[in-house]
Every structure is written in C-alpha cells, then in structure tokens.
Amino acid sequence: MTETTGLSTASSALLSFTAENVYCFRDEVHLSLLGTRLADPDVVRLMSIAGRAKPERVLPAAAIFGANASGKSAILKALGDMHGLVAGSFSQRASGDPLPRQRFLLDGAAADKPSRFEVELILGGVLFGYGFEMDDARVRAESAWYAPRGRRALLFERVSGKKTKFRSPLHDEGELLERYDRENALLLSVAGAGPDNPLRRLHRWFVNNIWHSAWEGWTYGSAKSANELSARESKERLLNVLRFADLGIVDLRLVPPDPQQVEQRKKILRAMRSAGLAVREEKDIADEDTLVLTHEGADGDVELDPSAESQGTQTWLGLIGPLLTSLDDGRLLVVDELDTSLHPHLVSRLVELFQSPRYNPNGAQLIFNTNDTSMLGDSGEAMLSRDQVWFTEKAPDGASSLYSLAHFTPAPRRDEAIERRYLLGRYGAIPSPNPADLAGALPAEAADLVDEFTDA
After folding, report:
1. 345, exposed or middle or buried, with CB in 10 Å at 0-12, 13-18, 19+?
2. Beta strands 115-123 and 13-20, pairing class
3. Cβ-based neighbour number of residue 194 at 10 Å
4. Residues 292, 298: Cα–Cα separation, whole Å
5. What is the pLDDT of residues 8-29, one digit of tens each?
6. Of 266, 295, 327, which residue constitutes the final position of a domain?
7. Domain tally, the chain
8. Residues 291, 185: one domain?
9. 358 and 369 belong to one structural domain
C-alpha cells in the first residue's frame, strides 16, 4: 500500500509514548510512531480519525539503537510499567501499598519529583490522550481526554488533594468511580471494572492490545504459542512459522504441564505481579499446555523436551505466538533485544511482516530495541525508514536521552550509508571504550598490545 492507494482498515494504534524521571531517564523522553516527511510511503499507514478531514500517518514499527546501558531496554520497561499500573494498580494492590516506581537514581533531587507517563493513541477511530504522575506512595495527577468530533474533550482530571473533575459523558459514573478511588491506584484502573464508556475502552486497550515479550520470557511466550495452537486450531500456521526459521522442525504437539511446572509458573507470576507488572492471573496459566517439537534426525524423527532446544529455537518459539496474535488482532508487540539468539536474516523477516501492509492488514505495531546495525542499511537498502530509527545515549552524569534519526539537521538522505555512519559515531549512541582501562586489566606483557587491538 502506498499513500495514494487509500486508507488503512485499522482503527487503533499507538501514536506516542512520553515518560519522565523513570529508570535512567531523568528528563522527558518522547517516542513517536507518527510518520514524518521522511517516512517510506510504502510503509506508513493512513488512518482515519473522527472529526478530521485528513488521515493521520502512522508507523507500524520503531527500532531503538544504542550502546549497552544507554537506556534501550529502559524505555520499553517504562512503557511496561505504565501498562502494568493501568492494568492492575486497583485490583492487584491493597490500600496503603507503595507504588512500584522506578525513578532516576543518580540525582537525589529526583526523589522529590514525580514520575510521569503519557500516551496518545487512536482507539476505534477516535483520538485519545491519557497520562499520570506518581511518587512512591500516591498518584499525584491523572487525566484523560478524547476527541470524538475532532476537538479535545476532557474526560476527567484528577489532582491529589482536590476533587476530581468529570466531563460528559462521565457525569453519571463519576460519583461511582470516586467511591473506589485510592491514592495508590489509578482511576483508569478502577474504570476497567465499570460500565462501557470511553474510559473503560481506554483501559481495555492497555490490557488487551499490548504484549511485552520481555516480561514473561520464552517460557510464557511459548505458552502463548501453545494457546494460539489450542484456541485457534492453527497448528499448520505455527508449524509453517517454525519451518520458515529453518530450525529442522517437522512437527509439534501440545503436552499438559506437570504440577511442579504449574507451581513454578505461579511463583514467578506472583513475584512479577508484586513488582508491578501486568501479568495474567494464576488460574489463567494453571492448565496452559507446553509445545513439544519434533526434529528430523539421521535415524528418523526425534521429539525433544523444550529444555533441550537451542536458545535460538526457544526465542523463536516464544515469539511466534505473540507475533501471530499481534498480526491477527492489530496489537502492539514490544520486544526487548529482538536480535537475541536469532540470525539477522530471521530478525529482518520478522520486522518486514509488520512493515508490509499485505501481511499486516490490521495495523499491528512493533517497538523493539536491537544491536543489529544491519537494519540501518547502507546506500538506500535500509529496512527501516529514517523516522523509525531511534537512539539512546547516556550523558556523563548518568542521565539518558532518546532521539530520532529524523531529527538530525540536515536530515539523512534516503541513499545515505546510515549503518556505516552510525558505527563511525555520526549519530552518537555508540560505546566509547578507553584502551587505557583495558591495559590496566591485562598482564604487563600484554598491555602494550592494547592499542594495536583497539585499532584493529
């Protein structure tokens, strides 16, 4: 699909995520999935928004590059924290419990400043905005708005110590929501249990439309893949994706988990929930089956226990269930270190599934970080358009920043050797090892080889 061939049929998408005073980000960081003038016209989606004559230009993917410990994972964790608080701050926390805040720790002044989270999204063809500020004990501020006719209309505004303001269409439900309001719970989390209205639909988007592969790892990702097989009777789909990866797999089957495995899953989920992550209830995983794969061997087919599979197979197995579900339902898939244990060609194909309107007709989105610089491409062969590339960089004071390749002036050309220039430091966000430090860690007879090693 190009920009001239018509509108996307998708009706929901994340447009931006903003955070401040979280993890290694002391100052505001803003990740956008809005297409710019640099967007590839074959990739950008045109989405209708209620009350607007012109459609919005939305990107199906965003990739984050940067040095180790620069914040690539932190920005995804921050989005995960927001998701977890919306999904479970009311149902999974008792009154008086502390909030699971991960503030910037390298500046004492940050302890007294709130952590802030905001999103803008299209939901059912309507523009929505939502955000909140919190400290370790309470929600300091929270608000939501939407634009069903093109102009923003406040749904509610909450400030600690003041009476919450509700606007139409929430006048009638406002009193009920306030009855269950707690200092350590988000009002949007409370609204999730209420009647159908714009707030409940916003809450359900957070709960149902975001899958964080990094949270539950390959074990639960493979359980998701098993659920995909069980619920949708799609064995051939899963098998085709496994064959596509050229892993030597010829068949698969479902095996009920043993009681010890179920109990271990429960312990892990309880620990994750206590850390503030939005994970499934224990009853939801009690009967989840495990996928067992059959490999082609020299003496015939061999069935391997999942623990005997290679790390690459485990990673791919953990991804394909969330991948297929995201593409089927138009969800947001968030993947930490997408290239871990996977060949670059396989990673490329996965990203291309989201980039292609043919394979991704429902507007699914992918946000990931990676160290695979081949995605940046050289001489116009890049897999990602320039406004889909983001960098994280850590300053000497320990505070990280997030910035887009599209924000450079002059803007990189389409045919620019972006990968090579990135590795040369043209865009920052690369490690700067000090040879002297390495020399100090080596035996004396090897120290004089450090400069030669570094130059190589």
Report:
1. exposed
2. antiparallel
3. 15
4. 19
5. 878 899 999 999 999 999 999 9
6. 327
7. 2
8. no
9. yes
